[in-house]
Write a structure and sequence with these properties.
Largest sheet of chain D: 2 strands, antiparallel
Largest interface: B-C, 73 and 84 residues
Oligomer: heterotetramer
CATH architecture of chain B: Orthogonal Bundle
Distance between the termini of chain D: 82 Å
Number of helices of chain B: 3
Chains: A mainly alpha (353), B mainly alpha (105), C mainly alpha (170), D mainly alpha (639)
CATH class of chain B: Mainly Alpha
Strand content of chain B: under 5%
Largest sheet of chain B: none
Strand content of chain D: under 5%
Shape of chain D: globular
Strand order of the largest sheet of chain D: 1-2
Order of helices and strands of chain B: HHH
Distance between the termini of chain B: 53 Å
CATH topology of chain B: Helix Hairpins
Shape of chain B: elongated
């Protein structure tokens, strides 16, 4: 009860010392700061993780000089990026050029807000949770498109267009595979979905179709974050750095961080929907609720690792292969899968403990 | 229901958006801009449906359904409009309204 | 509190709507429209229609705006400036719109609306049941019609956008 | 007796028509032939089954043949006036079923050989099936409107089949002629139907023809030009029948219709469709007989007698063998009409009616046989003309013998079916009207003469040299000939009068020896004359023709009827009426319309500047108009 009580204590304390309006504003600010901090720290350490994992895959050491095991390496990088000059291009549309990174960041942050890290530790338990996540994730792409176009650089533009095509296409699969799981829960609210999973994680409850949905979700999710093997958007060998070629310093860092946070978000959604969020396996730590955070982060990081594994395993796809994969394979499979899942639920063939 | 806000205020806002859309529809010279203005007009009416449903008949859901349908139709309309615009651009390399008057003859 | 949020939203909506129809840069005008739409989604959140808000975000912000941006990317260059109508036409239209707005507001404020006090939240469940109900007041038929319409629009859009290449192959 | 299954009799050919018509290009010719024959065979078997059930098992109750009806309401106009669709089974419809299915089946089989190698083989069978469907439907019709529908369908299929060789201009012209003439006659038919519908409030045959029913009892209600309305209606209906059956003033289409393939002539223009007029009169016989004491029936009798004589005279001089047969058909149908016209209603009085139906029955068999035989000859010689033939007996034995049987039958040679049926007709005529009897006997002699002129001219006479040696036709063609030859003789021995009679009771008939001897001897004289003229090559016939001079010429040119029609239509109708109407149409009606049109164009040219093509201008006008209107209304409401 420790974390839960902390949030509650802070809430009560704030409302006791100042008028209601001011208290709620202060509370909002506090929560925002907390999430921003989480965003920054998680982003930085995911970058570090990526580098260490990459090194591990490639049988080398990776960053290990700054701090013990190199844990301050990315902090130092961030500091360096902050201190750098913000260059731009002449004839760029400066308003949109500057606006673009914030789209990406804001959409990631809004998505982070709805995750149930542990029992009652959730900033925004909206009753359409999953749908909200899908809605929010569809906004991030606008930032990429804007960035690519307003840079007035043809590689950036091509990267942005690719990104648009890819994200719009794979959003369908993400949405549909999540919908498949909603058939099992009967609700969109994340807290209730977690509640349902107390009878067994959804990937177990839905067995075969759920596993198919999970596989599709992971493929489509990887594609949505524009990571290898779907990183056509920033394919170095073809487009320079893709849509953020012209960005430098902190603005580049925003895109960079957002990409890693997006990866975290994809993994977190998968954790919430498929693997029971903060629920411990077989309820072994039910008596200690704050351990939920540990389980949630643990599962999420495991899935993040899976995505990194993808990156260092598979070669990049061509654009036409990318679209073929989505429209000719994933989407039809997904639709059939939904029907199968519906039949499964209808005939009560799910596995429940 | 928004505390402290009556239906009149919301309807005022939507009326303003509606006429901004009309203004844009008439004065803009570019097909895409006209499409944008149309979206504004549509959105104004959607909000009206929803708000009237919420404020006057909260037990019913007709307004919500209608707004869902309008949004769906708007999506279809936009897809078609964009397809037409792109095709037009291929043919005459322009999306200005004044280039598309050939049909009047 | 909600009152303040509403006023902020209303301000955002109106300001960006005006910006959207007066900006001379194509993509900016689209982005302003996006802000308007997000603001409207905010109003939906405020009056507790979360589902609609999410639809607004998904379909409008994620679908329609992206489509429009796409078409802008395809047909528009960054250095282009939009032509605008002659000032006299702008003024006349603006006057006309103001008169129309006056008529609207006059009608609205003269109509005695009778709001019902309520704080019910509409769940997705209710919406889904209403949409797929075929009993009295059910909306399954319009629902089907809309799906057919969407299919037709999709096919039509593909055929139109594919252009003449479809028929060039003998 | 449950008769609902008889609905399948017309529907099977319809299905065949649809299959062959839709998959026209996909089906191999051989297969389509089999499909057509199989469909018709099924229908024929069903027809025979129906006939067996009706005549021998279930049909008769208390000595009276019952009428069985199975129908469904199709269109209702008023409480009583509605149009039904269904099947009606009574003695004559069953008899017609047998005739139509037998002849049609034979023609189908025959066509498989005759049409072999033709491009439109499948199409031909499709049309044949369409015709069979229509004819079955006509026969089974339960009311006047249904019969009218199928009547027109029969007309359409006849049109299609006459114009089958549509690359030949003469065939196209013949098809159009047939269609237009019969259509013109059907116009009268339709008016008659509408009059009957208006005055009696029903189209149903059972109600209409019930002798005790109110319709026949109250025939005198309303009169027009000295005749009762119903008589007019019956005369108009007979006009339709006369058109289809090629009676005197409306006969001009039938000779030209021989442009169609020969099996078509056999099926449609000899055995089935052309007797539809007879069938129609027989179907409405009680009305004809009772309404105004049979005034309309007398018209039928005289028209029939005159046509019979007229056609027989023309037939003597024709050289196109199919035309000879066509005029012979016309003559024989006139015979049937004549017989109907002199018939009574009750008991033995109804011998004319019975004889007419009997002759229809036997005539269908032997006339189909004659046509198919002629087709076989044409197939071998590749010519229609008598002068290109001669001495064919030694090449085509089967055709020759079957043709001889048919010729004997039509001439009324003793103990053939024609002998019996013709004898009954003459008996009926003798009892009622001596003038008509006289015409009948004379026509019988003429018939024998021209038939044997034909037979001798084709198979004996001069020994023509042929480019290709003629040979007998394949089995698929000779088989129907043999079957029909058998039927031509055998059908004479049915006790027809026990099954078909106007009051449906049946009666006994006996051969009237006195009259039979007269008729037979007249026939034999005709045969003998023909033998003298034509059996050996000589120039007797030419000398005779020369002696008659202009009369021969007239006859050869069919009394110039075609020319008279042409003159009437071209000079009077076209030049007189139509030309002035056209002038009025062009200079008054069109001109005023043009004035309106031109002024509209002028006005539109003035105002089309408003149509800028910029939709934003339209939107502006729309919004402006809406706002102004709103202001006006607000002003009005607030004050």
């Amino acid at each position: 009860m420790k974390i839960v009580s902390i949030t509650k204590t802070v809430h009560d304390w704030l409302f006791s010392i100042m008028p209601e309006g001011a208290a709620s504003i202060v509370e909002m600010v506090l929560i925002a700061v907390a999430y921003l901090a989480f965003f920054a720290v998680a982003g930085l350490y995911l970058v570090l993780l990526e580098r260490r994992v990459a090194a591990w895959f490639q049988l080398r050491l990776g960053p290990n000089r700054v701090g013990p095991q190199g844990i301050f390496q990315t902090m130092a990088d961030a500091l360096k990026l902050v201190s750098k000059e913000l260059t731009g291009t002449i004839k760029a549309d400066n308003f949109l050029y500057n606006l673009a990174p914030y789209f990406v960041i804001v959409s990631s942050l809004m998505a982070l807000a709805v995750f149930p890290f542990t029992q009652e530790f959730q900033a925004f338990d909206i009753n359409i949770g999953i749908f909200f996540l899908i809605a929010i994730s569809s906004i991030g792409v606008i930032g990429i498109l804007l960035g690519g176009w307003s840079s007035n650089n043809k590689y950036a533009l091509i990267g942005a267009m690719r990104s648009g095509v890819q994200t719009i296409s794979y959003e369908l699969s993400v949405g549909l595979s999540l919908l498949t799981m909603v058939l099992l829960t009967g609700t969109l609210q994340l807290s209730e979905i977690v509640e349902v999973q107390k009878n067994g994680w959804l990937i177990v409850q839905g067995h075969i179709p759920a596993i198919i949905a999970f596989m599709i979700y992971m493929i489509a999710g990887t594609a949505e974050t524009n990571r290898a093997p779907f990183d056509l958007v920033e394919a170095e060998s073809e487009l320079g750095a893709g849509f953020h070629t012209e960005y430098s310093g902190m603005k580049f860092a925003y895109f960079f961080l957002a990409e890693f946070i997006n990866m975290f978000i994809i993994a977190a959604i998968a954790t919430t929907i498929f693997f029971g969020a903060w629920l411990s396996p077989f309820g072994i730590t039910d008596s200690i609720p704050w351990l939920g955070v540990f389980w949630f982060l643990g599962k999420t990081l495991l899935l993040v690792f899976l995505m990194m594994w993808f990156r260092w395993t598979f070669p990049r796809l061509r654009v036409d292969q990318l679209l073929t994969l989505e429209w000719k394979y994933l989407l039809p499979i997904n639709l059939v899968n939904i029907v199968i899942m519906a039949i499964l639920v209808w005939l009560n063939l799910t596995i429940k403990f | 229901m928004i505390a402290g806000i009556s239906i009149y205020e919301i309807l005022t806002v939507t009326s303003i958006i509606f006429f901004i859309g009309v203004y844009g529809f008439i004065t803009r010279k570019n097909l895409i801009s006209i499409l944008i203005s149309t979206e504004l007009i549509l959105n104004a009416s959607v909000v009206n449906f929803v708000v009237i449903n919420k404020y006057l008949y909260p037990t019913l859901l007709e307004g919500v359904f209608f707004s869902i349908f309008i949004i769906a139709v708007a999506a279809a309309e936009t897809a078609l409009a964009v397809a037409i615009i792109i095709n037009l651009y291929r043919q005459i390399s322009s999306v200005e309204v004044k280039e598309t008057e050939i049909m009047k003859y | 509190m909600e009152k303040i949020i509403f006023y902020i939203l209303a301000f955002i909506i109106v300001a960006f709507a005006i910006a959207s129809v007066s900006s001379r840069k194509m993509l900016r005008s689209v982005i302003y429209l996006l802000f308007v739409l997000v603001g409207i989604a905010g109003i939906y959140f405020l009056i507790d229609y979360n589902f609609l808000a999410a639809i607004q975000l998904t379909v409008y912000a994620g679908g329609i705006i992206v489509l429009i941006i796409f078409s802008v990317l395809l047909v528009h260059h960054i250095e282009m400036e939009l032509e605008i109508a002659k000032p006299i036409k702008q003024i006349v239209t603006a006057l006309l719109c103001l008169i129309g707005l006056g008529v609207f507001l006059y009608t609205i404020y003269n109509h005695p609306f009778q709001p019902v006090e309520n704080y019910t939240t509409t769940t997705v469940n209710e919406i889904g049941k209403g949409l797929l109900s075929y009993e009295k007041g059910g909306f399954v038929l319009p629902f089907e019609v809309i799906s057919v319409l969407l299919l037709a629009a999709m096919v039509g859009a593909i055929v139109i956008a594919k252009g003449t290449k479809l028929f060039d192959k003998k | 007796m449950n008769v609902s299954y008889t609905i399948a009799i017309p529907l099977i050919p319809l299905a065949v028509f649809l299959v062959l018509g839709i998959f026209n290009q996909k089906i191999k010719p051989a297969v389509s032939g089999y499909i057509g024959v199989a469909g018709l065979l099924t229908s024929a078997i069903l027809s025979y089954y129906t006939a067996f059930q009706y005549y021998f098992i279930h049909g008769k109750e208390d000595g009276v043949f019952q009428t069985f009806v199975e129908k469904t309401n199709w269109m209702s106009f008023t409480e009583t006036l509605h149009i039904d669709m269904g099947v009606l089974i009574d003695p004559i419809s069953v008899m017609m079923l047998i005739v139509v299915s037998t002849v049609s089946l034979m023609v189908h089989i025959y066509s498989r050989g005759y049409m072999k190698g033709d491009d439109g083989y499948t199409k031909f069978f499709a049309y044949l099936s369409l015709f069979s469907f229509s004819m079955f439907g006509l026969v089974l019709a339960t009311n006047l409107f249904q019969i009218y529908i199928f009547w027109e369908l029969v007309g359409v299929s006849s049109f299609l089949l006459i114009g089958y060789y549509y690359t030949k201009p003469s065939a196209v012209a013949a098809a159009k002629k047939a269609f237009i003439v019969t259509r013109f006659a059907d116009f009268g038919f339709l008016i008659g139907i509408l009059i009957i519908g208006y005055y009696t409030g029903t189209y149903d045959f059972q109600t209409l023809t019930n002798p005790e029913g109110s319709i026949i009892a109250n025939w005198a209600s309303g009169s027009f030009m000295g005749l009762s309305i119903l008589t007019w209606a019956l005369i108009l209906i007979f006009m339709g029948g006369a058109g289809k059956s090629a009676m005197f003033p409306l006969h001009i289409w039938l000779p030209d219709a021989m442009e169609g393939p020969t099996p078509v002539s056999a099926l449609i223009h000899a055995a089935t469709m052309v007797v539809a007029g007879v069938y129609l009169v027989a179907r409405l016989f009680p009305m004809y007989y009772f309404v105004e004491d049979g005034f309309a029936l007398n018209i039928v009798a005289y028209v029939g007698a005159f046509s019979s004589l007229f056609a027989a005279i023309i037939a003597v001089t024709q050289t196109d063998i199919k035309r000879v047969l066509a005029f012979s058909t016309m003559s024989q149908i006139g015979y049937m009409m004549l017989a109907l016209g002199v018939s009574g209603y009750e008991g033995h009085e109804g011998v004319g009616y019975m004889a007419s139906m009997f002759h229809l029955f036997t005539h269908a068999m032997f006339k189909a046989l004659l046509f198919l035989g002629a087709g076989s000859v044409i197939h071998a010689v590749h010519s229609n003309y008598l002068q290109d033939m001669g001495g064919l007996h030694k090449y085509m034995k089967i055709t020759s013998i079957t043709f001889l049987i048919a010729a004997l039958t039509i001439s009324g040679f003793p103990f053939t079916s024609g002998f019996f049926s013709k004898d009954e007709i003459l008996v009926a005529a003798f009892e009622h009207n001596k003038l008509i009897y006289g015409i009948g006997v004379f026509v019988a002699g003429l018939t024998a003469f021209y038939m044997f002129r034909l037979y001798f001219g084709i198979f004996w006479g001069k020994n023509t040299k042929y480019e290709h040696t003629p040979h007998e036709s394949p089995l698929s063609m000779t088989f129907p000939l043999m079957v029909l030859a058998f039927l031509s003789i055998a059908t004479g021995y049915t006790h027809f009068s026990e099954y078909v009679s106007p009051d449906k009771m049946g009666f006994e008939t006996h051969l009237d020896v006195k009259l039979a001897i007269v008729a037979t001897s007249v026939g034999l004289i005709g045969i003998a004359l023909a033998a003298v003229f034509y059996f050996k090559p000589n120039n007797l016939s030419d000398r005779f023709a020369h002696a008659f001079g202009s009369f021969y010429k007239w006859t050869y040119d069919k009394f110039y009827f075609d020319e008279i029609y042409l003159f009437v239509t071209r000079n009077i109708l076209f030049k007189g009426v139509a030309a002035s109407a056209a002038w009025f149409d062009r200079n008054v009606v069109d001109a005023s319309m043009n004035l309106i049109g031109n002024s509209t164009v002028l006005a539109s040219q003035k105002i089309k500047k408003l149509q800028s093509g910029r939709f934003q201008d339209y939107a502006f006008a729309f919004v402006g108009g809406a706002v102004v209107l709103a202001l006006v209304f607000i002003y009005l409401w607030t004050n």
